[in-house]
Amino acid sequence: MEQLIITTSQQQAVATDTNGCEVEAAVNDIIAGSPELAALSNLKTVVYPNPFNSITTFLLTATTNADKISLEIFNVSGERIAMLFEEKLDQGEYRLVELNASDMAGDVYFYHITCGAEVMNGKLVLIK
Q: In this predicted model, what pLDDT tens digit does every residue of 75-96 receive, in sequence order?
């Protein structure tokens, strides 16, 4: 099973993947209302809503021809709980990928996106 290494304190969670990429998140930091925007050199990502209740959506848009893209979800223990997307996109193509978390506990989760050799990590807050 692929894992992220996650260290936590009362206020912070830090996820480190096998490539040494880190994302730090304030565990109790809940900011509502605006989508999270992130980009790699050939992929733009929007996550909305975040925090969310049951369903959140990832918009993946290729700005150039993109290598295989994968989108995985990890819990705070570093266990992969979902592989949501794994395919190649051509320039201008996009995909809406939905995470239905109705059977997941309210908690902080991490998404892990790879596109070729590039890696992007971010946090998701599921409110129940």
A: 999 999 999 999 999 998 999 9
